[in-house]
């Protein structure tokens, strides 16, 4: 992952509504969640949800799949792991003795 991708994903997650949507999808697991159920869970208007989902899809954090008339949203766990790894891979890299116990991510 490069710094621009990480910044884009972090910017997307920097919005409290998008972060709430993303966390809800992460909790849903591999099965994901329909847009309708997600809307009920989050409690926002369909157009607002669509706007926020579009941003999460653009950054690769969420994928959508149509199943008949239902749109299923899923958190993209590899993207999440890449972002977390990007943030933690160089933890304490410039310290002479590395990270002290319990400080590393």
UniProtKB/TrEMBL annotation:
<dbReference type="InterPro" id="IPR051011">
    <property type="entry name" value="Metal_resp_trans_reg"/>
</dbReference>
<keyword id="KW-0804">Transcription</keyword>
<feature type="domain" description="HTH arsR-type">
    <location>
        <begin position="1"/>
        <end position="95"/>
    </location>
</feature>
<protein>
    <submittedName>
        <fullName>Metalloregulator ArsR/SmtB family transcription factor</fullName>
    </submittedName>
</protein>
<keyword id="KW-0238">DNA-binding</keyword>
<dbReference type="InterPro" id="IPR011991">
    <property type="entry name" value="ArsR-like_HTH"/>
</dbReference>
<keyword id="KW-0805">Transcription regulation</keyword>
<dbReference type="Pfam" id="PF12840">
    <property type="entry name" value="HTH_20"/>
</dbReference>
<dbReference type="InterPro" id="IPR036390">
    <property type="entry name" value="WH_DNA-bd_sf"/>
</dbReference>
<dbReference type="InterPro" id="IPR036388">
    <property type="entry name" value="WH-like_DNA-bd_sf"/>
</dbReference>
<dbReference type="InterPro" id="IPR001845">
    <property type="entry name" value="HTH_ArsR_DNA-bd_dom"/>
</dbReference>
<dbReference type="GO" id="GO:0003677">
    <property type="term" value="F:DNA binding"/>
</dbReference>
<dbReference type="GO" id="GO:0003700">
    <property type="term" value="F:DNA-binding transcription factor activity"/>
</dbReference>
